[in-house]
Design goal:
Layout lengths: L1 H29 L3 H21 L3 H21 L5 H22 L7 H6 L7 H30 L1 H6 L4 H23 L4 H12 L6 H26 L3 H20 L6 H6 L1
Helix pairs in contact: 1-6, 1-8, 1-9, 1-10, 2-3, 2-4, 2-8, 2-9, 3-4, 3-8, 6-8, 9-10, 9-11, 10-11
Function: Involved in the high-affinity zinc uptake transport system.
Keywords: Cell inner membrane, Cell membrane, Ion transport, Membrane, Transmembrane, Transmembrane helix, Transport, Zinc, Zinc transport
Family: Belongs to the ABC-3 integral membrane protein family.
Length: 273
């Protein structure tokens, strides 16, 4: 009975996260922002360290640091003197290292780093589900609110500006939604795997999608399938659950690519871009 309860909580948490990462990940793929997602995910460990240091809820510590990093990334992108990948590499690895060093300096503190790095979906409880579904509703609501201007700036940023779209506030809002999603996903798939759940289902969905809205829905469904497959594999073969979910998503992507050919990931909508 206890095992059944654990699986039900884990399934509910995973499905809730997949419904959020599918639509959001579609924009990450369209805008070629995978490395941005990695940078935000790496900075989450610094948020954990600050949460322990100041005695605040870890989720809010992660959210605060990820949001600050998101704003910094957008500002640096507007005024960059170095190449984007260079700036992102510096911020990603320095924030991750700062978090590890800060945790190491806290004497007497025992931290399950493996849990934070790779997630522990089987440890999800009722309060975590409230956080996941409440935060997920905020993310989806925010994404719906900025959908049209964000899509316009994704397709052609300069043309969107001419048409009156305020691209900078839209970008900041989108990065804020990404920060909240990463905070939601930490306990499920961890820092090192969260970007995979954003990217892989969305990349797979391109093969079946003719419109942006269709791709967002299909990506969410593929994410749900990956969660179910990963949980079943973890239960039957005693595998780490977070990585199993990502492997399941990867297998779906590989199967789609094999069936539909090497160009499957491009999709018809990608061609319109």
């Amino acid at each position: 009975m206890i095992i059944d309860d654990l699986l039900l909580f884990a399934l509910a948490a995973g499905l809730g996260l997949a419904l959020v990462t599918g639509p959001l990940g579609s924009f990450v793929v369209w805008r070629r922002m995978a490395y941005f997602g990695d940078t935000l995910a790496h900075s989450a460990l610094l948020g954990i360290a600050l949460g322990f240091l100041f005695g605040i809820d870890l989720n809010f510590g992660i959210l605060a640091v990820c949001t600050a990093m998101a704003v910094l990334l957008v500002v640096l992108r507007q005024r960059q003197r170095l190449a984007s990948d260079t700036v992102l590499g510096i911020l990603a690895h320095s924030s991750l290292s700062l978090g590890l060093v800060a945790i190491a300096f806290m004497e007497g503190l025992r931290v399950d780093l493996m849990g934070y790095l790779f997630g522990d979906i089987l440890a999800v409880g009722g309060s975590d589900l409230l956080w996941i579904y409440g935060g997920g509703a905020v993310v989806l609501g925010g994404l719906i609110a900025i959908w049209r201007p964000l899509l316009a700036s994704t397709l052609h940023e300069e043309l969107a500006k001419v048409e009156g779209v305020r691209t900078l506030p839209v970008q900041l809002a989108f990065m804020g939604l990404m920060a909240l999603t990463i905070a939601l996903a930490m306990q499920i798939v961890g820092i090192l795997l969260v970007t995979s759940l954003l990217i892989i289902p969305a990349a797979t969905a391109r093969a079946f999608s003719r419109t942006p809205e269709q791709m967002a829905v299909v990506a969410a469904l593929i994410g749900c399938l990956a969660v179910i497959g990963g949980l079943l594999a973890s239960f039957h073969w005693d595998l780490p659950t977070g990585p199993s979910i990502v492997v399941a998503a990867t297998l779906i992507f590989a199967l789609v690519t094999a069936v539909r050919g090497p160009g499957a990931a491009g999709g018809s909508f990608a061609a319109k871009r």
